[in-house]
Design goal:
This protein has 558 residues and is an alpha+beta fold. The chain is built from 15 helices and 21 strands. Helix 11 crosses helix 12 and helix 11 crosses helix 14. The longest helix is centred in the last third of the chain and has 25 residues. The N and C termini lie far apart (76 Å).
Length: 558
Amino acid sequence: MIARTQRTKRVPARLNDCEVTQDNAVNDEGDLIHFALLADSEPLNYRDALKSNVWKRAMEEELKSIEKNQTWKLVDLPDKKKKIDVKWVFKVKLNPDGTISKHKARLVARGFLQKHGIDYNEVFAPVARIETVRLVVALACKNKWSLYHLDVKSAFLNGPLDEEVYVSQPPGFEIKGKESMVYKLYKALYGLKQAPRAWNKRIDDFLIQIGFKKCAAEFGVYVHCPKDEDIVIICLYVDDLLITGSRIAEIAKVKDKLKSEFEMSDLGELSFFLGMEFMRRGDGIVMHQQKYIGELLEKFEMESCNPLSNPSETNTKIDECSDEEKVDPTVFRQIVGSLRYVCNSRPDICYAVSVISRFMHDPRKSHMIAAKRILRYLKGTLEIGLLFPIGTNSAGSTLIGYSDSDWCGDITDRRSTSGYVFKFNNAAISWCTKKQAVTALSSCEAEYIAGTFAACQAIWLNLVMIEIKCEPVKPLILRIDNKSAISLAKNPISHGRSKHIATRFHFIREQVTNGMIEVQYCPTEVQLADGFTKAVKLDRFEFLRRSLGLVVCNSSMN
């Protein structure tokens, strides 16, 4: 028999907070625990993937899609040409409830090896803005239209290439006796720098061919009017399509045409789009990001933190904090970037995220504490989402904007903070918090600059709404809580105090004169943009949150 050591085994200090199991430990069902943990993990390389039947089938399905689209052809590599290597990327796709949707294997070209002017030229491809998606959802709820979600399978494989590109054979699937040969690409592969542009050109040509018109103010939105009173709207974000319209029959025709041209997955009524979840209830549709926020808390080890009721401290302003200890800049930037994405459905954290975003170049301990405070607030408000009410009423059928500023709010350079929010059909569709580029000499000037900032957004929203056949009532209403700024927008008064203001900030005065925008006074108590420029007390914060249309997802109004 082999003699076993009598030395006392000690658990390393780094594992004190971990649950340690033996290599041969089994669970209640008799399965090895370590194998159970690896069952749904993603392979690290193609060799490991080929050992699994599930991942091997996923790889074969990807190659079948490539061959079906006539993406490439096996040829000898021409002289003075270089091939681009390809690799396999594996991903377990999950449903909103966390269950496995599918095992996806993607063949990706190493696009970083491409050279500009030889392998590619232009790379830009437009997508629909998130605020446009919110506008379309609000419009659909207002008119009680249905919303549908389509996904194009292997979208980039449909985009034709103008350049001459060669790639190596897929690892693990080399053809015996022809290992030295390469594939010449006729259509794009994932990973190529020009792949998004090639795909966008392909689907853009097809949509125009079947009668759609691309919006001039928003290149990711397409509109089709088969009859005078009928309309179909498509929001395109790479390979995800959000479709709505006045008649289900016309939508079905468009879906059939798309399916006949591209291999698509019809995901039914809108429920999950670009990481945002849509839940239907009695009084409308709630857009939220519960799943994403939950993953965020888990990623940064905040799932067990103590929740807070306010994302910002009321009486404290953050500066450079150059005398404090530094924190990991990579982790801090990851938190900030993730929180900025959460702002797409949570305008209540917009100001707090804007503040911490100013210190990504040199984050300190106080900045990290402020970032984690926002995560603690999200922990306590995980079930809150943005409501898009069904139907319409006289008060909410037009486009109404609120503009505000916090004069000299930044204690480092004394610049002011601008904030605005626009509501359509009583739903917030567009909001923003941004520090002004110049130093304002008075609160009137700060409010005037913020008003111009909001007026630019109002004009753009008006153009988009006109193109989707939802022209708002004129003039557009912009509410400001500073009478001096309103007077300055209507008349060139107090010229001695305003002559230094840059010409571009007088854009709002021009729009007021033209009758496009009407500037109205509103008391500070009902100024909905107040929370986008400063940290407010809890009761005020909760009032603004309700006024913006943020509600608890699982509650329903009768």
